[in-house]
């Protein structure tokens, strides 16, 4: 590769991109389910390294405009690095459709000067480039099975096709010399006047496993709990970001000394062209300029295992860059480390760090980092406020429970150059006067007395709340009693516990994650209804890291309502994480299109599942033995899917009946639907989507969703003991409008809201209290 030496170049790029920094987006730093992202910011260009689950929610919270990103680079093509890509693409696609609608509308305004989404093209269609190592094509093929990404014009590049893998462990040492001799293959991905981004692919060939083959299930069971053999096979891209050199200052007196006449010739020299002097000789720009300042280099390094480190070592990358740094005066280099703590703690890693020249910066954004707070601070604030009001329904936000105290200490041996890459840490690369880390936007930085932003999240209006609440209770919410079922009056707390992992529709908001309802059944395990992006993170926030592993291991069934991405895009990541803690395949009951999604995905990662089509579980069908068996273990007497009326084929609702007499029904996405209401008759817990508020019938009909009042009516028709509304459009980030359609059996779902058969009786009292306290906030910007 080798960066183009601009010498006396005019540096037009510098004019446009005077400032440049890296910023740590600490996704997963709290829950460890995803890799952090790193944003590379220029005045006119944005690049993103990794896009894990929760990226959209994080962007809303931190005002990062996903639509302005020009390229995405993945260090791995697994969900850890790319879990947020499907959701982000969907949002981009929606935006583009929206813009098309506006443009074609009669009252379309004048042409917008705004930059089109994701590096848009002249015809208004977008163009987003995504780069990743081996598996990239399989990953996008998987996306194509459920996302219409035609309009985004996604450019996908699989880096390192044809690169030979390096054998693992001992073999790699033997081959080290020859491989080092051959040198690494640098793939140039972006090259413009400001920056060159290139990549080296690390691929470890595991001699324990036959190349290209995943272990069979029985073999899998023998593997270690952390299942390192699978991680070892992951191909990884290392990214090198080389900023262009800054040309030295033009020295007019030197030019005149050399006989260059004032005027256009000076301009030519400044632009990097040689000119002829008055004596007929050529004068080169280098002769009349101060020496140029070498542009800094940043390296994004994700090493899942020590074998990947060995692979990197064998390619001579360190030597190349270390030499460059020693040879060029003023050359700066910073490495951003995304590797897990196991690798950072290894002796080999310490010696690796030791070989870099003094002055090299190391930012440790390690997976097991030391974040003490959630990265979604608005959601945590709301959760904390709700906890104060109703501790029985809103448990305190769990820290991930990592050894945060020791994490910093563990890195003590890495020397002074290693700094903690906390969430939102910036590392300035340009201008050189600002070069280095900048904590002003991190939590710590903000708390250190820097100007604190007005907290727009907290709009609790304690003043008059009591009065408003009384008014809602007395005059608005209808009185409606349903006799308490015996399963409730005789319940013990451990019978059935329900947690909402997400209660939002389509796109996450600051307060509402995507669909997911986790039902824990005493000690025997649980069943998950829908599995939208971020479900693992939410379960970790609910149960803490240690119990999360237990929950995953004991998860018996995931039921998915329909093929829309917000209902299943968290599934691959859940399966990946579960395969590390459980031996049995997970039973997935879902719409038939989901089988294809998962089978395409299984080319990338080992995800042991048994798939059952929802239509095999409708009324009158004999349930597959495996499913009956799992339900039996959970104490569930019956699971029935009911086809509902939504904007895609094979959309279902579900009705579960517990052996202890409870009945829980969940509508999935649907217009009000008689067959579902009939099947759900007498439900103890009736969960229904309520995407739109009551005035928006046209939208509800077009998109085949339900209005608040329709969901409440459906519950009343089913004679439900409690009706819980969920799947709210992001128009209502906190509370939907409470009006006369609400009754005393109506409840509203919030993220991480939890209840059991004992506490469900009092769940409706949350509605007036919360509605009286929170203003309706405007839509997400
Ligand atoms: Zn849907």
UniProtKB/TrEMBL annotation:
<dbReference type="InterPro" id="IPR027794">
    <property type="entry name" value="tRNase_Z_dom"/>
</dbReference>
<dbReference type="GO" id="GO:0046872">
    <property type="term" value="F:metal ion binding"/>
</dbReference>
<feature type="domain" description="tRNase Z endonuclease">
    <location>
        <begin position="30"/>
        <end position="84"/>
    </location>
</feature>
<dbReference type="InterPro" id="IPR036866">
    <property type="entry name" value="RibonucZ/Hydroxyglut_hydro"/>
</dbReference>
<keyword id="KW-0819">tRNA processing</keyword>
<feature type="region of interest" description="Disordered">
    <location>
        <begin position="100"/>
        <end position="120"/>
    </location>
</feature>
<dbReference type="Pfam" id="PF13691">
    <property type="entry name" value="Lactamase_B_4"/>
</dbReference>
<keyword id="KW-0378">Hydrolase</keyword>
<dbReference type="GO" id="GO:0042781">
    <property type="term" value="F:3'-tRNA processing endoribonuclease activity"/>
</dbReference>
<feature type="region of interest" description="Disordered">
    <location>
        <begin position="432"/>
        <end position="462"/>
    </location>
</feature>
<dbReference type="InterPro" id="IPR001279">
    <property type="entry name" value="Metallo-B-lactamas"/>
</dbReference>
<dbReference type="GO" id="GO:0005739">
    <property type="term" value="C:mitochondrion"/>
</dbReference>
<keyword id="KW-0255">Endonuclease</keyword>
<protein>
    <recommendedName>
        <fullName>ribonuclease Z</fullName>
        <ecNumber>3.1.26.11</ecNumber>
    </recommendedName>
</protein>
<comment type="similarity">
    <text>Belongs to the RNase Z family.</text>
</comment>
<keyword id="KW-0862">Zinc</keyword>
<dbReference type="InterPro" id="IPR047151">
    <property type="entry name" value="RNZ2-like"/>
</dbReference>
<dbReference type="GO" id="GO:1990180">
    <property type="term" value="P:mitochondrial tRNA 3'-end processing"/>
</dbReference>
<feature type="domain" description="Metallo-beta-lactamase">
    <location>
        <begin position="527"/>
        <end position="728"/>
    </location>
</feature>
<keyword id="KW-0540">Nuclease</keyword>
<keyword id="KW-0479">Metal-binding</keyword>
<dbReference type="Pfam" id="PF12706">
    <property type="entry name" value="Lactamase_B_2"/>
</dbReference>
């Amino acid at each position: 590769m080798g960066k183009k030496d601009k010498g006396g170049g005019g540096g037009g790029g510098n004019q446009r991109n005077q400032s440049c920094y890296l910023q740590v987006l600490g996704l997963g730093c709290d829950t460890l389910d995803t890799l952090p992202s790193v944003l590379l910011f220029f005045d006119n260009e944005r690049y993103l390294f990794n896009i894990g689950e929760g990226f959209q929610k994080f962007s809303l919270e931190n005002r990062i405009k996903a639509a302005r990103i020009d390229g995405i680079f993945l260090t791995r093509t697994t969900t850890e690095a790319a879990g947020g890509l499907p959701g982000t693409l969907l949002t981009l696609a929606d935006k583009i459709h929206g813009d098309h609608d506006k443009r074609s509308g009669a009252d379309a305004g004048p042409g917008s000067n705004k930059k089109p989404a994701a590096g848009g093209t002249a015809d208004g269609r977008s163009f987003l480039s995504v780069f990743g190592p081996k598996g990239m094509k399989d990953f996008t093929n998987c996306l194509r099975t459920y996302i219409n990404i035609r309009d985004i014009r996604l450019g996908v590049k699989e880096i390192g096709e044809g690169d030979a893998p390096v054998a693992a462990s001992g073999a790699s040492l033997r081959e080290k010399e020859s491989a080092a001799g051959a040198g690494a293959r640098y793939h140039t991905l972006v090259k413009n006047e400001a920056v060159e981004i290139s990549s080296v692919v690390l691929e470890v060939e595991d001699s324990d496993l036959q190349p290209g083959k995943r272990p069979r299930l029985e073999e899998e069971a023998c593997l270690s709990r952390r299942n390192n053999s699978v991680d070892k096979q992951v191909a990884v891209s290392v990214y090198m970001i080389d900023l262009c050199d800054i040309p030295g200052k033009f020295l007019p007196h030197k030019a005149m000394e050399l006989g260059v006449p004032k005027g256009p010739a000076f301009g030519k020299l400044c632009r990097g062209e040689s000119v002829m002097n008055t004596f007929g000789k050529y004068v080169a720009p280098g002769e009349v300029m101060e020496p140029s300042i070498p542009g800094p280099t940043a390296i994004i390094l994700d090493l899942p295992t020590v074998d990947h480190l060995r692979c990197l070592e064998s390619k001579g990358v360190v030597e190349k860059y270390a030499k460059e740094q020693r040879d060029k005066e003023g050359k700066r280099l910073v490495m951003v480390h995304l590797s897990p703590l196991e690798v950072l703690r290894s002796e080999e890693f310490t010696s690796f760090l030791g070989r870099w020249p003094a002055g090299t910066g190391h930012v440790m954004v390690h997976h097991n980092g030391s974040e003490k707070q959630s990265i979604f601070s608005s959601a945590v604030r709301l959760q904390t406020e709700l906890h104060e009001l109703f501790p029985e329904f809103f448990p305190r936000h769990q820290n991930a429970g990592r050894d945060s105290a020791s994490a910093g200490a563990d890195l003590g041996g890495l020397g002074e150059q290693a700094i903690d890459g906390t969430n939102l840490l910036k590392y300035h690369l340009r201008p050189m006067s600002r070069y280095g880390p900048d904590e002003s936007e991190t939590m710590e930085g903000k708390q250190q007395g820097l100007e604190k932003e007005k907290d727009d999240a907290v709009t609790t209006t304690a003043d008059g709340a009591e009065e408003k609440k009384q008014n809602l209770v007395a005059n608005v919410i209808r009185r409606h009693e349903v006799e308490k079922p015996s399963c409730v009056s005789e319940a013990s707390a451990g019978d059935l516990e329900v947690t909402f992992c997400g209660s939002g529709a389509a796109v996450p908001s600051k307060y509402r994650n995507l669909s997911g309802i986790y039902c824990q059944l005493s000690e025997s395990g649980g069943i998950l209804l829908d599995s939208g992006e971020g479900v693992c993170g939410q379960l970790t926030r609910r149960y803490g890291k240690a119990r999360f592993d237990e929950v995953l291991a004991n998860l018996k069934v995931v039921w998915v309502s329909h093929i829309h991405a917000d209902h299943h895009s968290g599934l691959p990541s859940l399966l990946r994480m579960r395969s590390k803690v459980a031996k049995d395949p997970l039973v997935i009951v879902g719409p038939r299109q989901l089988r294809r999604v998962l089978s395409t995905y299984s080319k990338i990662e080992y995800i042991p599942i048994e798939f059952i089509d929802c239509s095999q579980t409708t009324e009158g069908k004999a349930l597959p033995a495996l499913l009956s068996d799992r339900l039996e273990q959970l104490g569930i007497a019956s699971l029935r899917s009911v086809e509902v009326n939504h904007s895609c084929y094979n959309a279902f609702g579900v009705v579960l009946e517990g052996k202890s007499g409870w009945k829980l029904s969940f509508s999935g996405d649907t217009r009000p639907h008689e067959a579902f209401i009939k099947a759900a008759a007498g439900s103890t817990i009736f969960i229904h989507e309520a995407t739109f508020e009551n005035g928006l019938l046209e939208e509800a009909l077009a998109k085949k969703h339900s209005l608040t009042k329709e969901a409440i009516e459906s519950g009343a028709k089913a004679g439900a003991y409690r009706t819980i509304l969920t799947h709210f459009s992001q128009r209502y980030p906190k509370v939907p409008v409470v009006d006369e359609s609400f009754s005393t059996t109506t409840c509203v779902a919030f993220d991480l809201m939890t209840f059991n058969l004992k506490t469900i009786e009092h769940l409706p009292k949350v509605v007036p209290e919360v509605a009286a306290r929170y203003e309706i906030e405007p839509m997400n910007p």
